[in-house]
Amino acid sequence: MRVLITGAAGFIGSHIVTALLDAGHEVTAFDTLLPAVHPDPAAARERLPASVPLTEADVRDPEAVAEALAGVDAVCHQAAMVGLGVDLGDAPLYAGCNDLGTAVLLAEMARAGVRHLVLASSMVVYGEGRYDCSRHGPVAAAPRQEADLAAGRFEPRCPYCGDRLVPGLVEETAPIDPRNIYAATKAAQEFLTSAWARACGGTVAALRYHNVYGPRMPRDTPYAGVAAIFRSALAAGRAPLVFEDGGQRRDFVHVRDIAAANVAALDWATTAPAGTFRAFNAASGTPRTVGELAAGLAAAMGGPAPRLTGEYRLGDVRHVTASSRRLRDELGWAPAVAFSDGVKEFAADSGLEATARSLS
User: Fold this and answer.
1) Where are the alpha helices (DSSP H) in the chain?
2) Max CA-CA distance within the chain?
3) Cα dist. 180→7, 62, 177, 186, 333 in Å?
4) CA distances from 323 to 130, 168, 286, 288 (A)
5) In the prediction, which pLDDT does 339 show?
6) Predicted structure pTM score
């Protein structure tokens, strides 16, 4: 099968290229290679095997997208601007890159007769994760208030009785509740691709990536940017600075496992009934705290112990971890990289890149 990967030279996209080639697929790449994203474009191109043709263009360019889709059977759409998008002034840029770019891609796929899509979605569409109250059962956590955060009250509480909530694993049936600009654009991508599938008889597997980490990871990414920031501090001989109290629960999943999930999702998309949209949590299924990650990296690198700062960022969620049962049961996927092994490999990675935002 011939597969087009947008954002192919990026952190996750480049690993997907390798995984698809290893699975016997033919791959063609599409990436902007913006200098702000890839300070060394030549090095970015070297991530891609010489046998993989690269279209260096913006996904919002209909002519370039149409040309890249020629002879293609399916698309893995990774290209996006990432980051929280806390400043509302950034909203047009995020929406333009992520949602207009996706809309252009979908329109050209419809014209070209390409009907299978794997979408890089994100856990951020959920907002806060699942919570249970001992008295009221499952409840939706309200956005945390700045006064509580400033006072060190980080845990969400029950909106009915005020008791501390117990975090759990969110499933794909949970309502979408994006809480920043980036999250809103990822939710919009899901809605756009779902509408596209119904309109043209396409199939969409939306992989809701959790905290992806591993080789080639840029310093500032919304998925596991904290891992890269910790590693950079330790490499400079500084203690990693941990926000809040370090108890934030996340699901750290290795980038090679994410690449394998894309291969499995592609296989599913090519056999699913026409008009199908299906979301899958791409997560290890084993929650870890941010403090655990910092301590693991410090131990692996022989650096100073993490320091809890009590600082916070408005828009950050306290806990979001997922059940990956659907991905395991329906796609036959399972994570292969243990957390301890992945952290050690990441600690030794010399290819960490400094980028603030990414269109790939």
Assistant:
1) 11-22, 41-46, 62-68, 91-94, 101-112, 146-150, 181-200, 225-235, 255-269, 290-301, 325-331, 339-348
2) 61
3) 22, 28, 10, 10, 30
4) 10, 9, 9, 13
5) 94
6) 0.91
